[in-house]
Amino acid sequence: MTAPAPWERAARGAMLLDGAGRAAPTVFAEMSALAARTGAINLGQGFPDEDGPRVVLDAAHAALDAGLNQYPPGRGRPELLEAVAEHQRRFYGIELDPRREVLVTAGATEALAATVLALVDDGDEVVTLEPFYDAYGAVIGLAGGVHRTVPMRGAEFAVDHAELRAAFSDRTALVIVNDPHNPTGTVLDAATRQLVVDLARRHDAVLVTDEVYEHLLFDGAAHVPLSTLPGAAERTLSVSSGGKTFSTTGWKIGWLTGPEHLVSKVMTVKQYLTFVNGSVFQPAIAVGLGLPDEWFAGLAAGLQRKRDVLADGLAAAGFSVAPSRGGYFVVADAAPLGFSDAADLCRRLPELAGVVGVPVSAFCHEEAAVEHASRIRFAFCKRTEVLERAARQLAALRV
Ligand code: PMP
Ligand code: GLN
Q1: Judgement on whether residues 211 and 222 belong to the same structural domain of the protein
Q2: Closest Cα to residue 360, out of 346, 376, 378?
Q3: What is the pTM of this model?
Q4: Residue 147 sits in the same domain as residue 248
């Protein structure tokens, strides 16, 4: 058996350094490096291969030329705080005080890290779904927390309500819910959303939502933030980011919204992580958040077409493809093609098909990694001709 890659150990919380004392790359960094090295099509790391709206890019240029090149205020530039509050009102009917209940962060990543560091003490438990976005496991470990997971089972990644209940205890400090979900592409159903809120209330836990894919729902579905459910708002911190919505993943402009007493706690930590970031990008994301409703609808419709191209191509290539209802990703099972170890297949995929994907096991602790062993996450936030080429190349796996 080959030794596990550093990211496999890191994702499972065993260590963040490799055997030689070097920082272990994340699975995304390793897979992007593999694509760059081999020239394979990179459907691994989730980032678009086209620019987002011109007005947003122009606004960043304008801010730079206007001299917004020094530290912005610690909480964020006022126009972005206002734009986030207005966005929450426009799309979800959530009323926020932009000066007290909104915090700008260095991407959703910092919002999540600062939240966990602020609210989790040694030995406190944090509940997430599994598979989970890799940063959750890492930051829970950094905070000294205990990571409890709820398995998403079967070909459709269903959440069993008894297992959800069993993950909570009186030590649960936090529950982090990512919806739409990376890596599975699932969207929570109403009953599961309600149960998460009920359990958080019963166990007096803070609810943290990771909504970075909030505008990328397909087939006519609308995003429902957990904080809009009865009894949720007073205990929910909602996290999002401009990266996916405006195809600016490198800008790292995120935000957190919620009750002032919780946002303030997170801000105390955030002040000593980055303090601030992205002075010229903050006003540009504010412009993006103000784009008309039709622009947001067009974004989801365009991505849905890309999802269809890739999902159909994967099915034609012989994979068993899980439905993707939101986000950047579709999960394809390689078992019907005779591959049982997707981590191994992903390392060989550049050579076999000229494509890079990420094994779902990289989002799992050891036990769940077994259940998802033959599954691969592919990103479809790429140009249609790139997706079509990837699908044609993957068809070569069948023989
Ligand atoms: N949460 C999820 C579920 C993600 O997929 C990502 C990455 N794209 C992030 C958080 C990080 O977002 P950001 O780039 O804004 O830090
Ligand atoms: N969120 C991106 C993904 O899931 C990766 C971001 C990163 O590289 N950390 O692919």
Answers
A1: yes
A2: 376
A3: 0.95
A4: yes
